[in-house]
Please model this.
Amino acid sequence: MNLFEKLYDEYEKVKVRFVGFTTKDTRYDFGIVYTNMFFGKPLVICMQTGRSTLLDPKDVENHEYLQRIFRIDTAEQAADLAEFFSDVIPATALHPEYDY
Model:
């Protein structure tokens, strides 16, 4: 009896960036996985909390989203993160993710 139906199983060599930095209030440590999966959105992982998300430039502009997904206390901290992410998150070219 098959318990699972495999949806995808892909291997890909990817670029991974680990970056730690501080602002006047907070220390951040992130892993950023640049992949062709997930419509080209990088996978961003907070190394302190394990919380992760896929980000594109529009997501970076949404400070409330950043504040919620990374559980950031203040709008100022979210703005700091948005400034950082705007430099490291590439513009995504939408492409078909799945074959039909």
